[in-house]
Write a structure and sequence with these properties.
Strand content: 15-25%
Number of strands: 4
C-alpha cells in the first residue's frame, strides 16, 4: 500500500504537471497555426486542425479539474500556454505560408534592381511617381512569403536607401505574377482553399 501511495504521489506531483505542460504547448501551438490557416482562407484544413486543438485542450482541462488542489497543475498549464505561443510563432515563421506584396519606392536610379528582379524571374510592375523629394519609381512584386528575406537583402544591396513595405495578400488571381517554380505550390495550397473570399 505504501508503494502504491508513493507511486500515486509521484504521478500527481511530477508526471501529471509534465503531461499538462506538454498538452498545453501542443494545443496552443496548433491554435496559432490554425489562425494562420483561417487568415489564408484554408477552409478545409483549419477545421481539422481546430478539432485536435480543442480535443487536446479538453483533455488538459479535465485533468486540471480533477486536481484542483495541486498548484503544480496550474503552473504547468500557464507555462505550457506561454511556451505554446512561442513555439506556434516559430512554426508559423518556418512554414512561410502564403504570398506577400512588396512595394519599393526609390528616388535613386533603380535600373540595376529592376534587372536583377527580372533575372530572378520575379513578376514586376513599375510605376513612375512623384514624392516629397521629387520623381520616384514604385516597384511592385508578389512573392511567396519564404522569399521575403531574399528580396529585402537584394533591395539593400542594390538600393539601400529605398523605402519598402510588405503586405499580406489573401488571394492571387494570376499565378504569372509569382516566380517560376511556385505555381505547383500555389495549386497545392488551393486544395485547402477551394473558395475565393468575398469582396
Amino acid at each position: 500500500m505504501l508503494a502504491l501511495a508513493s507511486n500515486f504521489d509521484f504521478f500527481a506531483w511530477v508526471i501529471l504537471p509534465i503531461l499538462i505542460f506538454l498538452s498545453r504547448i501542443t494545443d496552443v501551438t496548433i491554435g496559432t497555426v490554425r489562425l494562420i490557416f483561417v487568415a489564408r482562407g484554408m477552409k478545409y484544413l483549419a477545421p481539422i486542425v481546430g478539432f485536435f486543438e480543442v480535443l487536446i485542450w479538453l483533455l488538459a482541462m479535465g485533468q486540471i479539474m480533477k486536481n484542483l488542489s495541486n498548484p503544480l497543475c496550474y503552473i504547468a498549464y500557464a507555462a505550457g500556454f506561454a511556451t505554446g505561443n512561442f513555439v506556434g510563432m516559430w512554426i508559423v515563421e518556418k512554414l512561410s505560408l502564403g504570398v506577400v506584396l512588396i512595394r519599393v519606392i526609390t528616388k535613386r536610379d533603380s535600373t540595376d534592381l529592376i534587372e536583377h528582379f527580372k533575372q530572378q524571374k520575379y513578376g514586376l510592375t513599375i510605376v513612375d511617381g512623384h514624392g516629397k523629394v521629387g520623381e520616384v519609381k514604385i516597384l511592385f512584386t508578389i512573392v511567396p512569403r519564404k522569399e521575403v528575406n531574399n528580396i529585402v537583402a537584394q533591395i539593400k544591396v542594390f538600393n539601400p536607401r529605398a523605402f519598402y513595405s510588405i503586405e499580406e495578400v489573401g488571394f492571387v488571381e494570376k499565378e504569372a505574377l509569382l516566380p517560376e517554380g511556385t505555381e505547383d505550390i500555389n495549386k497545392y495550397m488551393s486544395l485547402f482553399r477551394p473558395f475565393r473570399k468575398g469582396k
